[in-house]
Specification:
The protein has one domain. Helix content is 42%, strand content 0%. It starts with a helix and ends in an 8-residue tail after the last helix.
Length: 73
Amino acid sequence: MYKGKIDQPQFKVLITGIAALVAESKLVTTQKEFLICRDPADNMILECCFAAQANILITGDKDLLDIKSYPSS
């Protein structure tokens, strides 16, 4: 049922983009616990960014956007 839908041309760009994102992804293990976000569930995002040594975080999440910056150490 769904295979016919996913094979449609309009999904090719989306699937290609997702495949590229997955290919560039890396699995990280968090070592540091963050308790700074207003939404406790978002702390996991910050922990992953820290573990991956991310320079930036692109998000539309208001709770994360309100933080603005955080010391790197």
